[in-house]
Design a protein that fits this description.
The chain is α/β, with parallel strands linked by helices. The protein folds into three domains: 93 residues, no CATH class; 99 residues, Beta-Lactamase, CATH 3.30.450.90; 255 residues, Rossmann fold (3-Layer(aba) Sandwich). Helix content is 37%, strand content 20%. The protein contains 16 helices and 15 strands. The chain has a nine-stranded mixed β-sheet with strand order 9-8-10-11-7-12-13-14-15, sandwiched between helices. Strands 3-2-1-6-5-4 form a six-stranded antiparallel β-sheet. β2 and β3 form a beta hairpin. The longest helix has 18 residues. The protein is globular and about 80 Å long. The relative contact order is 0.08.
Length: 452
């Protein structure tokens, strides 16, 4: 008896089976789909047995699949049989059709628009794929598996969720009733090995000159804000910049979903928690920022500031917690300050705008702005110092900015890099008092160096 006949005789109705066969073309896909449902039905609780390791389950599943395929009347080559076993095992134990993209180091983002539509990002460009989930129930099961591992839930009462994979990759999922065309899943992958400053220099995100400058700024305990749009590499840069923090300092990281991977020994990681099904138990970023002040931190690193916690972070920076680091979504360094002002107003305190700006100018020292360029690369395009107030305006000056004037090469890639503007930051004196000297060569423009 074929797998199709066995499945038709099970609790699955013949109508459902026919509908699924129409949805997936090809003999191999049909066999793999039938095996998937037959395994779920016949193994049942074995698949969720907490006492069984994944390796033990994999051996059991592969043994069962081999037995099923030995009875299958559909002609399949040895290669096709191995592929069917791999596909079904990934569907049951792994992450289904997106598993191969998770394993591909060149893929940086996976976008599932619905069970039949999967896109990936490679080298900063979006590409369609031939991958597809068996049906909506299969995609929902994968989403549930991901969010359950980090203690989150997703259902009709809570149809959106932010989570992470074991390697720290960022996950966002949206289901019915918000997702009209089927469940949506977006995964922003993190590299298996955290990027180093040498990697960012190789990618062109930073230069050796600016990397040396950032090293001095972090060791000198300047308050640094990393700004940029979605997907520009803010968290990656924050991770690299954080590596400059001396290993003997006590670091507290605060995130919505724990993504930072710091190599220092004395790191305390805090993660926010959403409300439960009764609407209780929420712990916000703002709560964690307040609590971190009681944990004797040398450094506070907030993964992203997006709400009322901006006020608490600025107050922390202004009350002795120097060397704090964070990120914010914005289109420019100036826009980053405007967004901070707006978020402070979200705290519920009726503060005059001048008082907020004075807090911002006193708290922050440096804004690093990232941009995703049209060639797909992610580059630091500005490093701006925050100076004192002049009237009602926060004064800023660009220390480094990206040189767009060099144009593009034949393949459409930018030839420019981050260059010094020739201005020496005013906080250089503060760093010198801390025993950190900034070489004058760090601020010599490229044009002046060529003349020398």
């Amino acid at each position: 008896m074929s797998l199709t006949d066995r499945l038709a005789n099970s609790t699955e109705s013949a109508d459902k089976l026919a509908a699924r066969e129409v949805a997936i073309d090809g003999v191999k896909d049909t066999v793999a789909r039938n095996l998937h449902y037959l395994l779920i039905e016949e193994m049942g609780a074995e698949l969720t047995d907490a006492e069984s390791s994944e390796s033990e389950l994999r051996v059991r599943i592969e043994r069962r699949l081999s037995g099923y395929l030995a009875e299958e009347t559909t002609p399949l080559s040895a290669t096709e049989r191995r592929r069917v076993i791999t596909d079904v095992t990934d569907n049951i134990l792994g992450y289904g059709p997106i598993q191969e993209y998770l394993d591909d180091p060149e893929v940086t983002e996976i976008m599932v628009n619905n069970p039949a539509t999967i896109f990936i990002e490679r080298s900063g460009k979006i590409h369609p794929t031939s991958g597809r989930f068996i049906d909506e129930a299969h995609l929902l099961r994968i989403i549930d598996k991901i969010v359950a591992r980090v203690g989150r839930r997703i259902d009709e009462s809570s149809p959106m969720v932010d989570a992470r994979l074991p390697d720290g990759s960022r996950v966002n999922a949206v289901v019915h009733p918000l997702a009209i065309n089927g469940p949506m899943l977006t995964i922003r992958k993190f590299s298996r090995e955290p990027y180093t400053v040498a990697d960012l220099i190789r990618f062109g995100t930073l230069t050796e000159q600016t990397a040396e400058f950032l090293d001095a700024c972090v060791r000198g305990k300047l308050n640094i804000l990393v700004s940029g749009g979605t997907g520009t590499g803010k968290t990656t840069l924050l991770n690299v910049v954080s590596s400059y923090v001396p290993g003997n300092e006590r670091i507290v990281t605060i995130e919505d979903a724990a993504e930072l991977r710091l190599s220092q020994e004395h790191v305390l990681r805090l993660e926010s928690r959403p409300a439960n099904i009764e609407g209780k138990g929420q712990v916000s970023i703002r709560d964690l920022v307040r609590n971190s002040l009681r944990m004797r931190p040398d450094r506070i690193i907030v993964g992203e500031v997006r709400g009322a916690e901006a006020l608490d972070m600025l107050q922390a920076m202004n009350t002795g917690h120097e060397g704090s680091l964070s990120t914010v979504h914005s289109n420019s360094p100036r826009d980053a300050l405007a967004r901070l002002e707006t978020m402070v107003l979200m705290s519920g305190f009726d503060l005059p705008m001048r008082a907020i700006r004075e807090q911002v100018s006193a708290a922050l020292d440096l804004v690093i702005h990232l941009t995703r360029l049209t060639d797909g690369s992610r580059r630091v395009t500005k490093m701006s110092e925050i100076n004192a107030m002049e009237g009602d305006t926060v004064v800023m000056q660009d220390i480094y900015q990206f040189d767009y004037s060099k144009g593009l090469d034949e393949e459409g890639r930018y030839l420019g890099s981050l260059e010094a503007t020739g201005l020496r930051p005013k906080f250089a004196e503060r760093l010198e008092r801390a025993g950190i000297e900034l070489s004058t060569d760090l601020f010599v423009p490229a044009s002046a160096r060529q003349k020398q």
